[in-house]
Design a protein that fits this description.
With 327 residues, this protein is α+β, with helices and mostly antiparallel strands. It is built from 13 helices and ten strands. It has a four-stranded antiparallel beta sheet with strand order 1-2-4-3, with helices on one face. Strands 5-8-10-9 form a four-stranded antiparallel beta sheet, with helices on both faces. It has a two-stranded parallel ribbon with strand order 6-7.
């Protein structure tokens, strides 16, 4: 009897699609191949300016594969083998050989609650240092920063990095392309970064579309663009977790580990959100690597801002319909 019927496949993909992806572009598609699954890349879901080599997209595919693995385990199934595709195989990323004998993973319970938290964190939370210490112990590929003075320095670096990319018209345009700042956008709640995911009210979202759009050049000339786009106030309200992995690691494996670490944060009662610009901007990347004395055989992959949210986040996921993800 075949392991995968249509209903089971849809149930699995419904959970796998909850994995994070860069800018929530959701580049992963799936195709059944007997009792194996093909992981496919949607050519329309790329970031040619911010991610010209496709590294972040590949990490996103890895996170989706880990999401599938977690979903399989809850049903007594597992990924027995991952065959990464060659360049000659076009849009195929990997072939996953499935088998019976999977077991539920303790992290699978956090899948449905995990979401990016872009609001501020609660300040002066007495148990936060212990939770962050627990996080550092649970995830050996995270370096946790919670000293207030160092957090403030990293927050300043993040603001500098973000503004650097916003000043590049192509980067800013690509970001705006994936932002859904109005409910009238036909893709609102479907993919990209919508106003709710960005913790913006209706007026704030409308203002953001103007500040990042037609008004940005003028605001920059007036010296107002940097303060209007600063997120320092939110960034200093918690801590940072630096995600590092072995140099030269397959990005699919890196993406799987990235998702697991984020789920670990959720399981420990912490909210998180990546601050990728800290890694993408060379000066901030070098400074963080120096400050944390990262060994040469490790590389800084991403940075999370992490803390206790001011309210219990509602796990709302803007996701493409399952039927469109199975091709």
């Amino acid at each position: 009897m075949a392991m995968l019927d249509r209903q089971l496949l849809e149930d699995l993909i419904a959970e796998a699609r909850l994995a994070p992806s860069v800018h929530n572009i959701q580049p992963t598609r799936w195709r059944r191949d007997g009792d194996a699954l093909l992981v496919l890349a949607d050519a329309a879901c790329r970031l040619p300016v911010a991610d010209p080599l496709g590294h972040d997209v590949m990490l996103s595919h890895g996170a989706a594969i880990e999401g599938l693995s977690l979903a399989l385990g809850r049903r007594g199934l597992r990924i027995a083998q991952v065959d990464k595709a060659t360049e000659e195989q076009g849009d195929i990323v990997a072939r996953l050989v499935l088998a019976r004998g999977g077991e539920p993973d303790p992290l699978s319970a956090a899948v449905f609650d995990r979401a990016s938290w872009r609001g501020p964190f609660r300040r002066g939370e007495p148990d936060l240092p212990q939770r962050l210490a627990d996080l550092a112990e649970a995830a050996g590929d995270l370096i946790v920063i919670h000293d207030k003075a160092i957090v403030a320095e990293v927050a300043d670096l993040a603001d500098r990095a973000a503004f650097h990319f916003l000043c590049d018209d192509a980067h800013r345009g690509e970001l705006l392309h994936w932002m859904r700042l109005s409910r009238s956008d036909p893709r609102y709640g479907r993919d990209g970064l919508d106003a709710e995911a960005l913790a913006l009210g209706r007026l704030e979202a409308a203002a953001a579309s103007l500040v990042l759009g037609p008004l940005f050049p003028m605001l920059r000339r007036l010296g107002l663009a940097a303060p209007l786009t600063s997120e320092r106030g939110k960034l200093v309200s918690g801590g940072f977790a630096l995600f590092h992995r072995p140099s030269g690691e397959d990005p699919l494996e890196t993406g799987r580990a990235f998702y697991r670490d984020w789920l670990t944060m959720e399981r420990l009662g912490l909210a998180a959100c990546p601050v990728s610009v800290l890694v993408d901007f060379s000066p901030s990347n070098r400074e963080l690597v120096r400050r944390c004395a990262l060994p040469p055989d490790r590389r800084l992959v991403n940075v999370f801002r992490v803390g206790k949210p001011t309210r219990r986040p509602i796990a709302r996921h803007a996701r493409i319909d399952v039927g469109e993800l199975i091709v």
